[in-house]
User: Which sequence fits this backbone?
């Protein structure tokens, strides 16, 4: 059995999630609940749960501040929030599961199933460690690492080591500075949103490039960006004006 702690500042949310877990996730036992970050911290230290369901936005300390106050992170985590924009970009960057309120039963079961799988493999929670580093060093973007979940593993990759991304349906291939390629089962638009503040340019519907690796703009047989690894990336007609401004 997986022992869980739920932290949320509204009692009805605690009760609702507890009922959903009891009904749909029989492997989960709710060991404790808490209405504040301070109370939740005590419950975590006392209960030592395997899994934490944590609201992000709470009065006083928020969920991130609670995590930063803990001496160690020995648990899996699923964030629960009513706001897609509140803290979610950082959570997505670290590839940590989250649920939006009201909670969808299928999404809950999927997130719990993944958490149980990770628990059974006894893996260190590198994604949570990465999230806390992101929050601690928010201004030092050159050091930030994005979590890329492939079929075999979750890799933490420095954003500045990504040369470009290329999509194929709902998959995105990351081309790294080392020459390695990583295939991730997420559409490119999700990474466009996450990487736009890290110097990445969506030059085409299927392509995202790191501007630091652009070598030239080739205008033969169409428009292309020549990158330092000698790859040619197409430029869509909609993006030509933006590219023109970039080279100005």
Assistant:
């Amino acid at each position: 059995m997986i022992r869980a702690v739920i932290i949320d500042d509204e009692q009805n949310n605690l009760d609702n999630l507890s009922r959903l877990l009891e009904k749909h996730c029989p492997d989960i036992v709710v060991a404790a609940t808490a209405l504040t970050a301070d109370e939740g911290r005590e419950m975590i230290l006392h209960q030592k749960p395997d899994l934490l369901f944590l609201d992000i936005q709470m009065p006083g300390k928020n969920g991130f501040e609670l995590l930063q106050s803990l001496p160690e992170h020995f648990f899996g985590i699923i964030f629960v929030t009513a706001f897609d924009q509140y803290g979610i970009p950082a959570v997505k960057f670290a590839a940590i599961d989250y649920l939006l309120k009201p909670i969808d039963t299928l999404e809950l079961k999927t997130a719990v199933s993944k958490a149980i799988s990770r628990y059974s493999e006894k893996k260190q929670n590198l994604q949570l460690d990465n999230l806390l580093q992101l929050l601690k060093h928010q201004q030092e973007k050159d050091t930030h690492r994005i979590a890329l979940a492939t079929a075999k593993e979750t890799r933490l990759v420095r954003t500045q080591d990504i040369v470009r991304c290329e999509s194929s349906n709902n998959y995105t291939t990351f081309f790294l500075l080392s020459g390695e390629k990583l295939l991730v089962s997420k559409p490119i638009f999700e990474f466009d949103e996450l990487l736009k503040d890290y110097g990445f340019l969506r030059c085409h519907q299927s392509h995202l490039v790191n501007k630091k690796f652009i070598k030239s703009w080739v205008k033969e047989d169409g428009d292309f960006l020549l990158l330092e690894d000698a790859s040619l990336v197409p430029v869509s007609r909609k993006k030509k004006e933006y590219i023109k401004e970039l080279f100005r």
